[in-house]
Amino acid sequence: MQTIPPVALVTGASSGIGRAAALALVDAGFAVVGTSRNAAKAKALAGVTFLDLDVSSDESVRALVEEVIERFGRIDVLVNNAGVGAVGAGEESSIDQAREVFDINVFGLMRMTNTVVPYMRAQGGGRVVNVSSVLGLIPAPFMAVYAATKHAVEGYSESVDHELREHGVRMLLVEPAYTSTSFEASSLAPDSPLPVYAAQREVSRDVLANALRNADDPDVVAKAIVAAATDAKPKLRYTAGSMAGRVSLLRRIVPARAFDTQIRKLNRLAG
Predict the structure, then answer these.
(1) Which of 2-6, 167-171, 227-231 is least confident?
(2) Do residues 58 and 111 lie in contact, with contact meaning Cβ atoms separated by under 8 Å?
(3) Exposed, middle or buried: residue 46 (CB in 10 Å: 0-12, 13-18, 19+)?
(4) Which of 176, 208, 238, 268 could form a disulfide with 224 if both were Cys (CB 3.0 to 4.6 A apart)?
(5) CATH class of 7-266
């Protein structure tokens, strides 16, 4: 009798962390559906079925999930990975721009969750794995809007996990540090740049570029995603890579004043 493999749905799977996660889940025995804004242009991956998805569209999310259920019959793991970066001082992003970032990083994740979870409840179990960031745990000067989305993902995920457990569903967090992807190149520049922040903004870009030169490979994050998807007794949080683990630990044990000083030093901020 042929065993039907579990089904994993990975958003933003055409590159970076999502691509690595899709391949790792295939290796772990999943039938994988990967999504992209333009699936026809996504590079083919063995064992991965690519479908179109815009996480900022209610209709696109609904149509995608219905198609996956129709074709595969179930969704056992949802990996909410699709996201967008944003750089610049908080004051330099208009509310419209901030709303655009939240619509993908936070509301897109919520749309996917709200659409998939009913199927998971009906089938008696499932896991939602949200790709967060250590920037959901710490301040991120000159990336305030992006950090705010990840802080929101942290609070939402931990809260919803409590709501879902009695229904056999878990919501789990994967928290990478700097990862070697196209994050910097694809991040939104501030749409309301101000001269008063120009010099420090460039310093911050340099800090980010230097950090990314020594960043973790996406496979490191993919390994944490697979662990969250398959561990018999899953943890709420999975830090991905040694740097992420250190940051998470230091945030918990270092006194607030000392941590604040270190953040300013690392970001080359005066005073």
Answers:
(1) 2-6
(2) yes
(3) exposed
(4) 238
(5) alpha beta
Q: How confident is the model at residue 182 (pLDDT cuts 50, 70, 90)?
A: confident
Number of neighbours of residue 168 by Cβ within 10 angstroms: 13
Q: Bridge partners of 188? A: 86
Nearest CA-CA partner of 237 in 163, 161, 183:
161
Radius of gyration of the chain (CA): 19
Q: With beta carbons less than 8 A apart as the criterion, state whether 179 and 190 touch.
A: no
Query: What is the per-residue DSSP string for the chain?
Result: -PPPPPEEEESS-SSHHHHHHHHHHHHTT-EEEEEETTGGGSPP-TTEEEEE--TT-HHHHHHHHHHHHHHHS--SEEEE-----B-B-GGGS-HHHHHHHHHHHTHHHHHHHHHHHHHHHHHT-EEEEEE--GGGTS--TTBHHHHHHHHHHHHHHHHHHHHHGGGTEEEEEEEE-SBSSSHHHHSBPPSS--HHHHHHHHHHHHHHHHHHHTPBPHHHHHHHHHHHHH-SS--SEEEESHHHHHHHHHHHHS-HHHHHHHHHHHTT---
Cα torsion angle, 176, 181, 186, 189, sign: positive
Name the active-site residue from 146, 156, 178, 238.
146
Burial class (CB in 10 A: 0-12, 13-18, 19+), 167: middle
Residue type, 76: D
**What residue type is assigned to position 3 of the chain?**
T
- 255-266 pLDDT, tens digit each: 999 999 999 999
> How far, in Å, CA of 54 to CA of 39, rounded?
11
- What pTM does this model have? 0.95
